Amino acid sequence: MNENHQRLIQIGNAILNASRNELYLSLRFLDIALSGLQYQMNLSSLYVGTDGEKVLFNPRYLVERYQSDPVLVNRLYLHMLLHCIFRHPFHTGERDPALWGVACDVAVESIIDSLKLKATHLVVSDRRRELYAELKQDLTVLSAEGIYRKLSEKTFTPQGFGRLQLTFWVDDHVFWEQKKEDNKNQDQNDQNNDNQENEDDSVSQQEKQKQLEEKWQQIGEKTETNLETFSKEMGENAGDLLHLLKIENREKYDYRRFLEKFVTLKEDLRVDEDAYDYIFYTYGLSLYGNMPLIEALEYKEVKKIEELVIAIDTSESCEGETVQRFLEETFSILKNNDSFFHKTNIHLLQCDAKVQQDTLITSQEDLADYMEHFRLIGSGGTDFRPVFTYVEELMEEKRFQNLKGLIYFTDGYGTFPRRRPPYETAFVFFHEDYLDLNVPPWAMKVVLGPEDLSVYDKEN
């Protein structure tokens, strides 16, 4: 390594260290996060970015920003750090990369713009203020997922989208995509090459990415705890950031796994293919013609949904399209042959401040008919208690033999019952930023992710 090259590395490291120290003095709750990124000079990019493991910098760009105003480097460092804390580089999924990148930039810049700190203060442009105000009309907090959803509803010209990118552009996201492409290439190697060494490399790369994401999840959780400790010192600056951290740090589950909490173990009339040995079975057929040595059992113990109550909040604050989407996803899972007994006892309740309708579902045909003619009934206020009273009356009338649980889909704004019922209960909220702590301790709290109906399950 020549002397000039080494000098550029030292200058870049010195600038980043100075920025990190200044951020630490202003934002002490970020102490662990500020130690989470290493530095590496990278001339493949003209700018600065992170892959979640390192800050990869072009020294020329870094020096120019620092000479122009050290605040620009402070904001750049904090911008990348927030990307990692919220795990933006790891959550691209099947989203449009360009739009997701903009949504992530808007999310972290909105936080930085709200901080009243000398180390990060710049005048907020009118264009930024206008977008923040527009987004906050529909979003309680400006999370990247919520912003992505709102931006995807818009139609941009190429020039308009370019202006939006430039308004919030700070760091180079090319390293996010490189990580994604590395994983794709490793997967392709697995399919096309049986070489054990390549296979091990693929596992190693994927495992490294998983460990890196888990590292930032742990840092995010510790940052949340630190911020709660320093929240009084931070004052109003702590509000949105703490809320976003709580949302991001929720444990995420697959919606199908969640529904498994309501299944019943019961004998079902079907051939149990695992209950006998095929060798003896086919040997008997070959020896005696039509007489197997071991008969297959005609029943099998399986886990399926037999008895369930699904309550749908139809108050004015619950949108019909959102309710419809929840039902379609839920019923698409329930209609699976592996989820239904031949005969079921599912009560679908529509309710606001009282129970408006009770529809009994006993088969997949009933379910299909219900969805075909579905319409919301009621639009008053929300009171959860009448549903529990009604279900209690059904139980007294012996309408249930083994009720597994109640799933209550709602906006969350209502009066909860005080007493725990004799069955599992889950309140399902459709706001991705819903964090109301008034849910009774005996109930499961589930927040639906708006894009893929995955769930965030907070079980007390």
Structure summary:
The chain has 460 residues and is of the alpha/beta class. The chain is built from 16 helices and 12 strands. Helices cover 49% and strands 16% of the residues.
Structure in words:
It contains 16 helices and 12 strands. The chain has helices spanning 3-26, 31-34, 59-68, 70-85, 97-114, 126-136, 144-152, 158-168, 174-192, 196-234, 238-248, 255-259, 278-288, 320-334, 364-372, 385-396, and strands at 38-41, 48-50, 54-57, 252-253, 264-269, 299-313, 340-351, 355-361, 405-410, 424-429, 444-448, 455-459. Helix 5 crosses helix 7. The protein has 460 residues and is of the alpha/beta class. Strand 11 (444-448) and strand 12 form a beta hairpin. It has 2 domains: 3-249, no CATH class; 255-267 and 304-459, Rossmann fold (3-Layer(aba) Sandwich), CATH 3.40.50. The strands form 2 sheets. Strands 4, 5, 6, 7, 8, 9, 10, 11 and 12 form a 9-stranded mixed sheet that branches. It has a 3-stranded mixed sheet with strand order 1-3-2, sandwiched between helices.
Tell me how many strands there are. Answer: 12
Query: How many structural domains?
Result: 2
Question: pLDDT below 50 for ≥5 consecutive residues: which ranges?
Answer: 265-271, 456-460
Helix fraction bin = 40-55%
What's the Cα radius of gyration? 28 Å
Termini gap: 57 Å
Largest sheet: 9 strands, mixed
**Global geometry:** elongated
Structural class: alpha/beta
Task: Give the SSE string.
Answer: HHEEEHHHHHHHHHEHEHEHEEHHEEEE
Give the amount of beta strand, in percent.
Answer: 15-25%
Q: How many helix segments?
A: 16
Query: Overall pLDDT, averaged?
Result: 79
